[in-house]
Design goal:
The complex is a heterodimer of chains A (423) and B (312).
Chain A lengths: L1 H15 L2 H28 L3 E7 L6 H10 L3 E6 L3 H7 L7 E5 L14 E2 L5 H23 L3 H9 L16 H35 L2 H6 L4 H37 L2 H15 L3 H29 L4 H27 L4 H6 L6 H8 L10 H29 L9 H9 L3
Parallel strand pairs in A: 1-2, 1-3
Antiparallel strand pairs in A: 3-4
Helix pairs in contact in A: 1-9, 7-9, 7-11, 7-12, 7-14, 9-11, 9-15, 11-12, 11-14, 11-15, 12-14, 15-16
Chain B lengths: L1 E12 L2 E12 L3 E5 L6 H8 L7 E6 L2 E2 L2 H4 L3 E4 L11 H11 L4 H14 L15 H13 L5 E5 L7 H16 L3 E6 L2 H7 L2 E6 L2 E7 H7 L4 E6 L13 E6 L3 E6 L5 H10 L4 E7 L3 H9 L14
Parallel strand pairs in B: 3-8, 3-9, 6-7, 7-8
Antiparallel strand pairs in B: 1-2, 1-4, 4-5, 9-10, 11-13, 11-14, 12-13
Helix pairs in contact in B: 3-4
The chains are: A mainly alpha (423), B alpha/beta (312).
The complex binds adenosine-5'-triphosphate and magnesium ion.
C-alpha cells in the first residue's frame, strides 16, 4: 500500500511540476474563451454594413419611412434614389453603393415583393438578411397603413401571442435550456479528460517499458501496483487541473461581483438566476464520480495497450483505436441524448458502463429524479464501478505479461489470452 | 543454511521451454555464476527468483522459508540485463525513489546514497538527469540502486557489460566486499574469465536445463584431461619421449605438454624422466579453463536456440 503511495506521488509530482502542466492549465481556459469570443467576433465581422440604393417605381416607399428605419436599425444603410435603372446599374459602385434593388411598378402590397439585391460582388447570406429584415419592417408599416391598423391595434398584434415553455411537473426546477448547456459542457469535459489523460497513461506506460525501468520496478512492487499507481497519479493530476479551473472561475466570479460595475453585476445576477434552478451539489458530485469512474475504466485499458506495444506510436494508435472509438461513440450518443434525455437510447447508454460517464453526465442536469430516476442513477453508478473493477483487473493481467514482452506487437486476441490464462 | 533453494522449477512459454526442471542450491555468502549460452533460460530463471514471473511448476525457498515475493523482494537486489532508469528524472531523486520502493525510509535512503556516491565518485551527479550520463556511468548508478538497500541476495545480470577496466575493477571489488559482509551474489554472464576470477560456485544452463553445477575448483577437476606441462634444464629429443606412459600434445626445445595415460600416476612419469637423466625444472598440471568446458558442453548445440512447439 505504502508503495502505491510512493508511485502515485512520483507520477503526480513529475507531471504537476512540468511546465506543460502549468501552461496548459492557464492556457486552456483562455483558449476556450478566445475561441468563443473569436467565433462571435468573426461572425459579426463577417456581416458587413451594406449601402443599398432603392429605385421605387411602385410608389409605396418614401424617403421619410426609409430614413426613420435607418435611424432605428443601422446594420445597413438604405437610400431612395431616382436615377433610371440602367444608369444606376452602370455606376452604383462609383456612387458608393454596395448594391441596389428595383421595386417594380406592378408591386402590390397584398402580394409582397420578390426582387434581387443586385451587387457587383458575392454577399454572405447574413448581410442580405439584414437588408431584407429592414425592408420588411418598412413593408409592415406600409401594410398596416393600407389595412388601417393604428398604433393600438398594432400593439395588440405584436404582443398578444401564445407562449409555451416545457415544464417538468415532477421536477419544478429543471430548465431545459440551461440543462442542455450544462449537460453538454459536462459531457464534453469528461470526453476530453478520457482522451487526453487516457493517452497520458498509455504514453507513461510505454515510457517505462521502452526505458526498461519497468523490470527494475517490478522487482520491487507488483506490476499491478505499478499500473494502479500510475493511473491514480495521473487521475490526481487531472483532478488538480479541474479544481484549479473551478477555483479560477470562482475567483473571477467573485471579483466581478465585488467590482459591481453596472453591466457586470447584471451578468452576475443573470448567472445567479440561471443556477438557482439547478441542483449544483448533485451535479458536482456526479461529475466527480463519473469523471473518476470513466477515467479508471478507460485509462486502465489504455495502460494495457501501452504495456503491449513497443516504442512505435503507430502501433499504439492502431491498438488503441477500438478504445478511442468507444469514447467518440459515447459523445455521439450524447448529442442525441441532449435533444431527448428520456429516450430509450439515452437511458440505456447512460446505464451501460462504457458510455455512461459521458451520457449520464449529459442527462443529470435535466433533473434527478425527474428525468433520471434514482434507480437509473444508482444502477449506472453501480455498473460503472463493476465495469472499472473489471477493466482494471483485465488490464492488470495484460499489463503483467506485456510490460516485460519485447518484440512483435500482439493482437487484441493475444492480449485477451494473456488476460485469461491462469497466473 | 542455503539462502536459496530451487526445486524443479519450470517455466514454459508458448514457443519455448524457457526453464525446464531446474534445481539449485545456493549457500549464504557465495558468489554464484549462472552461465549458459544465449537463450538458455538464465534471465527467465532469474525473473522467477526475483518474483517477476511465477513458476509454472516447482518451489523456491528463500532463507529457509517458502519464497513470498511480496515480503521477500525487499531483501533482494536485482540488476536486469537491460538497464533501465527514468531518463528525465534527477539522479538523486530517482535513487531515493527506488530505495524507498525497496522499503527504505527517505532519510535513511538519502544517507546511504550519499555514502555510495562519495565512494563511487558520483557526488556531483545528484541534480543531473540520467539522460546526461554515458552508458557506463548509468551502469554504475544502476549498480548503486541495486545494492543500496543492503539486500541479502544480489542478482546481477551481466554486471560488467559496458564498463571500462577501471570501473569493472571498482564493481568487482564491491562485489567481493558485499560477499565479505555476508551478502550472496548471483550473476549471469558469458565472460568466462570473469567467472573464473570472481565466482566460487557455478551452474551451467543450456536449453532450459542445468547441465553442470559445482565449485569452480571441482568443475575444473571433473573436466581435467590429465594434461601436464613439464620443463627441463636440458634439451629434449624425441628419443626421450616413450609412448606407453603418456601422449605428447606439444613439444618445444625444453618443454613438453603431455597427457598421462590412464593407469599411470604422476610419480611414474617423473620417475621415467629422471631415469632418462633429464633435469626437471617444473611439473604442472594444466586444468581446463571454464571457457573450454563451456565450449565442450554446449559447443555442439546450434548457435541460436531453436523455437519449439510447447504442449502442456
Ligand atoms: N516473455 C517471453 N515470452 C515468450 N518466450 C520467452 C519470453 N522470455 C523468454 N522467452 C524465451 O525463453 C528462452 C529463454 O530466454 P532467456 O531470456 O531466459 O534466455 P537467457 O539465457 O537470458 O539468454 P541471454 O543470454 O541471451 O540473455 C528464449 O528462447 C526466449 O525466446
Ligand atoms: Mg538473459
Amino acid at each position: 500500500m505504502n508503495k502505491i503511495l510512493l508511485i502515485i506521488k512520483r507520477e503526480y509530482l513529475t507531471r504537476v511540476r512540468k511546465k506543460t502542466f502549468i501552461i496548459s492549465t492557464i492556457l486552456f481556459p483562455l483558449l476556450y474563451l478566445a475561441l468563443i469570443f473569436g467565433m462571435g467576433y468573426l461572425g459579426e465581422k463577417g456581416k458587413s454594413r451594406l449601402r443599398v440604393a432603392i429605385i421605387d417605381s411602385s410608389g409605396y416607399f418614401d424617403k421619410g419611412k426609409i430614413e426613420r428605419e435607418n435611424l432605428k436599425d443601422s446594420s445597413s444603410i438604405l437610400r431612395l434614389v431616382t436615377d433610371n435603372p440602367d444608369s444606376l446599374k452602370k455606376n452604383f459602385t462609383d456612387q458608393g453603393y454596395d448594391g441596389f434593388i428595383i421595386i417594380p411598378q406592378h408591386a402590390s402590397w397584398e402580394q409582397g415583393i420578390n426582387e434581387p439585391l443586385q451587387t457587383s460582388r458575392t454577399l454572405g447570406i447574413g448581410s442580405a438578411a439584414q437588408v431584407e429584415k429592414k425592408l420588411n419592417s418598412i413593408w409592415d408599416e406600409i401594410k398596416n397603413e393600407k389595412l388601417g391598423i393604428d398604433e393600438n391595434k398594432k400593439m395588440i398584434l405584436n404582443s398578444s401571442r401564445v407562449n409555451i415553455i416545457p415544464k417538468n411537473i415532477k421536477d419544478e426546477t429543471a430548465d431545459s435550456g440551461v440543462a442542455s448547456t450544462i449537460g453538454y459542457v459536462a459531457g464534453f469535459l469528461i470526453y476530453l479528460i478520457l482522451l487526453i489523460y487516457g493517452s497520458q497513461v498509455m504514453m507513461g506506460v510505454m515510457e517505462e517499458k521502452t526505458n526498461r525501468i519497468a523490470e527494475v520496478i517490478v522487482s520491487s512492487v507488483k506490476p499491478f501496483q505499478l499500473m494502479l499507481g500510475k493511473i491514480l497519479g495521473i487521475g490526481l493530476v487531472a483532478l488538480t487541473q479541474f479544481l484549479l479551473w473551478i477555483a479560477f472561475i470562482f475567483i473571477i466570479y467573485n471579483i466581478t461581483k465585488a467590482g459591481g460595475s453596472g453591466m457586470m453585476s447584471g451578468v452576475v445576477g443573470q448567472v445567479q438566476k440561471v443556477f438557482a434552478g439547478i441542483n449544483i451539489p448533485l451535479i458536482l458530485f456526479c461529475f466527480g464520480f463519473y469523471f473518476l469512474g470513466g477515467f479508471f475504466f478507460y485509462s486502465s485499458l489504455y495502460a494495457a495497450i501501452g504495456s503491449a506495444v513497443n516504442e512505435d506510436m503507430r502501433e499504439a494508435q492502431s491498438l488503441s483505436f477500438p478504445v478511442t472509438m468507444l469514447v467518440i461513440f459515447s459523445i455521439a450518443i450524447m448529442t442525441v441524448t441532449i435533444s431527448e434525455p428520456t429516450g430509450k437510447l439515452a437511458v440505456w447508454a447512460s446505464i451501460i458502463p462504457f458510455s455512461s460517464p459521458i451520457v449520464m453526465m449529459a442527462r443529470i442536469p435535466f433533473g434527478v429524479p425527474g428525468t433520471v430516476p434514482w434507480w437509473q442513477l444508482g444502477l449506472s453508478m453501480g455498473l460503472l464501478i463493476a465495469g472499472f473493477i473489471f477493466t482494471v483487473w483485465l488490464s492488470g493481467k495484460i499489463y503483467r505479461t506485456g510490460i516485460l514482452m519485447y518484440g512483435k506487437k500482439p493482437s487484441w486476441k493475444e492480449m485477451l489470452k494473456w488476460a485469461f490464462r491462469k497466473n | 543454511m542455503p539462502i536459496l533453494e530451487l526445486h524443479h522449477l519450470r517455466k514454459y512459454f508458448a514457443t519455448q521451454k524457457a526453464v525446464d526442471d531446474i534445481s539449485l542450491t545456493i549457500e549464504k555468502g557465495q558468489i554464484f555464476g549462472l552461465l549458459g549460452p544465449n537463450g538458455a533460460g538464465k534471465t527467465t530463471l532469474i525473473r522467477m527468483i526475483t518474483g517477476i514471473f511465477y513458476p509454472d511448476e516447482g518451489d523456491i525457498f528463500f532463507d529457509g522459508k517458502k519464497f513470498d515475493p511480496i515480503n521477500d523482494i525487499s531483501k533482494i537486489g536485482y540488476m536486469p540485463e537491460e538497464r533501465g532508469l527514468y531518463k528525465k528524472m534527477k539522479i538523486g531523486e530517482q535513487t531515493e525513489y527506488l530505495a524507498q520502493l525497496k522499503g527504505l525510509k527517505r532519510s535513511e535512503a538519502n544517507r546511504k546514497i550519499k555514502e555510495w556516491f562519495i565512494k563511487f565518485d558520483m557526488h556531483t551527479w545528484w541534480n543531473k538527469k540520467v539522460e546526461d550520463l554515458s552508458k557506463g556511468m548509468s551502469q554504475k548508478l544502476q549498480f548503486v540502486t541495486t545494492v543500496l538497500h543492503e539486500p541479502k541476495l544480489i542478482i546481477l545480470d551481466e554486471p560488467f557489460s559496458g564498463l571500462d577496466p577501471v570501473n569493472t575493477n571498482l564493481i568487482k571489488d564491491e562485489i567481493y566486499n558485499l560477499a565479505q559482509k555476508g551478502a550472496t551474489i548471483i550473476f549471469s554472464t558469458h565472460r568466462m574469465e570473469q567467472v573464473e576470477e570472481i565466482c566460487d560456485h557455478i551452474a551451467l544452463v543450456n536449453k532450459g536445463q542445468k547441465i553442470l553445477d559445482g565449485t569452480v575448483k571441482q568443475v575444473k577437476q571433473d573436466f581435467k584431461e590429465h594434461l601436464f606441462k613439464v620443463s627441463f634444464a636440458d634439451h629434449v629429443t624425441p628419443e626421450h619421449l616413450a609412448i606407453h606412459l603418456f601422449e605428447v600434445k606439444k613439444k618445444d626445445d625444453n618443454e613438453v605438454v603431455i597427457k598421462v595415460d590412464p593407469g599411470y600416476s604422476n610419480n611414474d612419469v617423473l620417475q621415467y624422466f629422471i631415469n632418462k637423466g633429464l633435469r626437471i625444472e617444473s611439473f604442472n598440471e594444466i586444468l581446463p579453463s571454464l571457457n573450454d568446458i563451456f565450449i565442450r558442453l554446449v559447443g555442439n548445440t546450434p548457435t541460436a536456440r531453436q523455437f519449439q512447439e510447447v504442449t502442456a
